[in-house]
Amino acid sequence: MTQSLAMPGYLDALAILVGALTGGLYATRKGLDPVGVLLVAFSTGVGGGLIRDVLLQDGIPILLLNPLFQLYAALGAVVAFFFGRIAVRLTPAYEALDTFMIGGWVLLACGKAQQVGLGPIPTIFVGTVAAVGGGLIRDVLCHDPPELMRPGFFYGLAAFGAAVTFTAFDYAGAPIIAAQLAAMAAAIILRVTSVHFGITSPTPYDVSELVLRKIGLGARLEDDADAESVGRQN
Predict the structure, then answer these.
(1) What DSSP character marks residue 142?
(2) Are 163 and 183 within 8 A, CB to CB?
(3) What does R_g of the chain's alpha carbons equal in angstroms?
């Protein structure tokens, strides 16, 4: 059962500023020029919201209509470019904010997805993509393999967990504040637990041979592998 989602007005601004600052610092470490730093910072700060609004096809993205949001993104770029050393010293602070904002972006995106009438699964998808979209665009612009798609500390999984938690609570008829708090807690717990205990997302684990042996086809698999090896040698 979908309820009316009320989010603090400052949440978008905080998400954009933190995202732009982290994106700008990433760009300065890459040695980009001012235009490059501005582009990466702006894309990281507003990328998640832009992807959300494009997916929902709900008019012009609000981030392009609100000059204050654009100002916050530009501010993050300026701080990263001119005060990078000072900003780096504050890394623990904005990393903590970034962890908090995983859940924030999820709530903003899930709320808007529900407002346009999406069901549970599309809502989870939009919420997850919006939370990780800025970092994904940053990596693409910097010609790096997307960090979110590589094994590492939980970020995408934290966003997914928050989106699932919020949607489950909301559709179960829980009070909206309970759904919000549960989603934020899920994102923070998953992210902090991953970093604190060094738990990383898993790499692919092929169980084909194990399954085939269980159903009695293991010998055939080995024979096929031996035949292929002999064929290559010949």
Answers:
(1) T
(2) yes
(3) 22
Q: Where are the alpha helices (DSSP H) in 148-175?
A: 156-171
- The residues facing 153 across adjacent strands are 200
Domain chopping of the chain, boundaries: 10-197, 205-234
pLDDT tens by residue, 75-122: 989 988 898 787 777 767 767 777 777 888 898 899 889 888 899 999
pLDDT in tens, 173-197: 889 889 989 999 999 999 999 988 8
> Nearest Cα to 28, choosing from 86, 98, 99?
86
How many CA atoms lie less than 13 Å away from 229 in the CB half-sphere?
A: 6
For residue 210, the one-letter residue type is: L
User: Which string of DSSP letters, residue by residue, matches 112-162?
Assistant: HHHHTT--HHHHHHHHHHHHHHHHHHHHHHTT---GGGSS-BSSHHHHHHH
CA distances from 133 to 26, 164, 165, 189, 208 (A): 15, 17, 19, 21, 33
DSSP state of 200: B
Amino acid at 152: G
C-alpha 110/C-alpha 145 separation (Å) is: 27
CB 80, CB 28: distance < 8 Å: yes
CB 134 within 8 A of CB 78: no
Of 81, 107, 88, give the one whose Cα is nearest residue 14.
Answer: 107
In whole angstroms, give the CA distance from residue 107 to residue 113. Answer: 10
Amino acid at 226: D
154 within 8 A of 201, measured Cβ to Cβ: yes
CB 98 within 8 A of CB 131: no
